[in-house]
Design brief:
Elements lengths: L6 H9 L4 H11 L1 H15 L5 E4 L6 H12 L1 H11 L2 E5 L3 E5 L7 H7 L1 H6 L9
Antiparallel strand pairs: 1-3, 2-3
Helix pairs in contact: 2-5, 3-4
Pfam families: KH_NucS_shadow
């Protein structure tokens, strides 16, 4: 299960749309490690202090790795996080997360990060089974 959905939120979802704020609260509470990592890269980008930030430290355990994978593999969760922080997220190797300012999505740095070449250059034997 990706998220721990409070009963009241599930009831709201059964009768109609749920607003982003309620959804984001659920994501933050359900996936605290993923929230921490994404906040670390997204906060300075969203604040406009940098156009790009990334996190390259592998998660301390499979539990945290699973949280990061669930957050970034779900279109709904990833999209909600991008809207909340005002950034574009990019992801490599089960742990390398980057945030880009929307204006930087058309940059060489973004294209390099999301390219096949970028993925291949970010490989290492110790990350083989991540």
């Amino acid at each position: 299960m990706s998220l721990d959905v409070p009963k009241a939120l599930l009831e709201r979802a059964t009768v109609g749309d749920v607003d982003d704020a309620a959804f984001i609260d659920c994501v933050r509470d359900s996936l605290p490690y993923a929230w921490k990592v994404i906040s670390e890269v997204a906060d300075p980008v969203g604040a406009g202090t940098v156009a790009f930030a990334d996190h390259e430290v592998p998660p301390p355990s499979e539990t945290e790795r699973g949280q990061l994978l669930r957050a970034l593999a779900s279109d709904a969760i990833r999209g909600g996080l991008e809207r909340h922080f005002g950034v574009r997220l990019a992801f490599q190797n089960c742990h390398r997360v980057a945030a880009f300012a929307p204006s930087a999505v058309d940059s060489d740095r973004y294209r390099a990060f999301v390219s096949a070449r970028g993925q291949l250059l970010n490989q290492s034997p110790e990350l083989r089974d991540c």
